[in-house]
Amino acid sequence: MENKAIPATSKYPDKPITLIVPYGVGGGTDLVARLLEKRALEYLGQPLVIVNKPGGAGTIGWNEVAGSSDGYTLGMTGVEIILQPLYGQTKYHYLTALDPLAQIAELSIVMVVQDTQPWKDLDELIRYAKKHPGEIKFGHGGMGTTGHVAGEMLAKSADIRLEQVPFQGSAEATASLLGGHIQVLFTNPASVKEHVKNGTVRILAVASEHRLKDPVFANAPTFREQGLDVVCSNWHVIAAPKDLPVEVKNKLVKGFEAIINDPEFQKNIEKLGFEFSYLGPKESQEKWLTENQKLSKTVQETGILDKIKAQKK
Amino acid sequence: MDILNLLLQGVSVSILPANLLSCIIGVLIGTLVGVLPGIDTVSAIALLLPFSYGMDSTAALIMFAGIYYGSKYGGSTTSILLNVPGEAASVVTCLDGYPMGQKGRAGAALAISAIGSFIAGTIGLIGLTLLAPPLAQAALAFGPPEYFSLSLVGLILLSKLTGTSTLKSALMAVIGIMLSTIGLDSLSGISRFTFGIDELDRGFDLSIIAMGLFGIGEILTAMTHADAKPDIPSVKFRDLYPTKEEWQRSITPMFRGGIVGFLVGLLPGPAATISSFISYGLEKRYSKHPEEFGHGAIEGVAGPEAANNSAISATMIPLLSLGLPFCGATAILLSGFMIHGITPGPSLITERPELFWGLIASMYIGNVLLLIINLPLIGVFVQLLKTPLNFLMPLVAVVTLTGAYSINNSMFDLIWVIFFGILGFLLQRAGFEPSPLIIGLVLGPELERGLTQGLIICNGNIWTFITRPLAATILSLGFIVILYNFVTWFTKFNNKRKELDANRS
């Protein structure tokens, strides 16, 4: 992908555009990309070709996007573009090497316990944890992921000790919660929705700025409401390499804005369990910068960084 | 009776023309996905998801499920004919299926594999129909310490599946475990043993190694007998199908495999692959002629192919009744459900009975369809073996390499397929069997994960593992088997020594 030729901007796009998904086929990011693919021809004038480049927690795919400049190679990004450079050396500093075109959706984190646990609300759990430090184990979908970060944020801001148990993805973590092997779970709302509805799982708090719109979760208070500064979410953003010609970038921004704001697209995003949340390039860029500041502070203060650095040695 | 009524209602839903058509399309695509190495169920469903929006949700789900269980029917085809596993779950079928093909019994192996798949798939479905919610709950009692115990016992019991030397097998299993640690650790997210090469972060895909060790390895072996003509005797129509003796030997393994597969399918992990190995191990242990295993024992095809199909039915249980996908293929099925506005979970059966029972009824129908599709295909597939080796082998190489590339769209993977191909060839020559390596590769991560998570849950105290009733039971079973093996080995050794002593005096 060393094609550095500047595209003829007036004719752009005159061939299919590649959208790199840095994860495997069938994951959440991949499905969002495939939803975009469906309407691309109509709004971008050319088809989108989805190419999965999994590996390296996303970095293999993003390196390819950052290394291209022809305007025909875009990529799907998530909060990992901020976290990965914090955790260790990456080939590019993605925040400066990539340019957001549009945010599509947000993925919040919720904190849940099994209904057989004695804690009716967050307050009771914190009081218990203060008396029994380290006894409560919380599960999450992998070290350094948003679920893990949110759990450590809670421990830090409530000044309690929680032991973290990493799982491979949210399904295994949820199974372990339902089987009573762990007491608390930090996960995305979609994976526990049916169990909350059914009453087998109780939601204690939501780690976002506002309460969730979904009626099943609407009654659940945020951490902020309960006086704790725990806000952590992932997102799906389409990004391009930095320094595309303005006309090319504008065409892409307009095209994606139209696709994303199509009501049917929006409905499908919500069906997949994501919160629809469109942000333009400027707002997305601002969000990246504030998230970067916040997260680099958080991973340092909570000791996640030390833990990861210690293991990397 | 209640369930029978509901199932009958389900049948009435699933035989609606649109649903029946989706079922046929699904199982046809599934068969194709299974036959072609490298194309897996996950990619096939993901590629079709966007096209399914316009479809009725029941029809779409019937189609996706059809692709999923259909793929396990075709997986054995290339294993038996070419020694290239079409699916990870059919790796073990290479061990005896391919030798059967070499002896001119490919047709019988394919037929037994299809019928075994049908019988076991149906056993799994009956379990799914009758017991889904209670079984899903029961499986939740298994936590990380139990997964650890299961994988440990599994590794010990299964590593000596083939070959004669325990030491060589154990060595291969250990190499398999070592290979499984390469790449991004699934729990900590740390890359290990990658020498800073980003592409190694992905780790070795099971299919890449299996295609190399078995497929490319076999091509290289064939090249060393360059003048060899395919010595497949011209197969008469009657010979395509199993003999009475082959039948009798297969029937028990099919049922045993069906039950094993079903139980394994309830737990997280690559159930279809693991269950096929367990079934193979069981059959070898119970067989009256274990020496035939590895040289074309029909039980070694019947059991595993049955097991991987009932495992598929069983993986639908946690998915449908808890909404939990325990493997990649059920995860993409879950996405397929959600995109059609259906969230599987405890309330699915009561809220959408027509959909739930329609889907299950369609799976019964799909299994019959798969049998009808697969049996006549056997004649066609066996013809393939008449191709002269100097045409067939390059073709196999192209298919294998294309399949390997398509897994991650990576040239890097191609280098590794060839590397493992050469390794497989050399190992074979040196008398090492590649299958324990695959077992180490599959169970290694489960073992490690179970241990890490289990230790955290048990506050770092490993003795808790033997005070948890389930884990203790599993571990002691393993211990008894090892003790038994040791005692028999020792008595044999002792008898031999006495014999020698007697001869000497």
Automatic annotation (TrEMBL), chain A:
Signal peptide: none annotated. CDD domains: PBP2_Bug_TTT (cd07012). It holds the Pfam family TctC. It comes from the Bacteria. SUPFAM superfamilies: Periplasmic binding protein-like II. PANTHER family: BLR1237 PROTEIN (PTHR42928:SF5), TRICARBOXYLATE-BINDING PROTEIN (PTHR42928). Belongs to the UPF0065 (bug) family. This is Uncharacterized protein.
From TrEMBL, chain B:
Residues 20-439 form the DUF112 domain. It holds the Pfam family TctA. The chain crosses the membrane at residues 20-39, 45-69, 108-132, 170-188, 208-228, 259-282, 322-343, 355-382, 414-432, 470-490. Keywords: Membrane, Transmembrane, Transmembrane helix. The keyword Transmembrane helix applies. PANTHER family: TRICARBOXYLIC TRANSPORT PROTEIN. This is DUF112 domain-containing protein. It comes from Pelosinus fermentans JBW45.
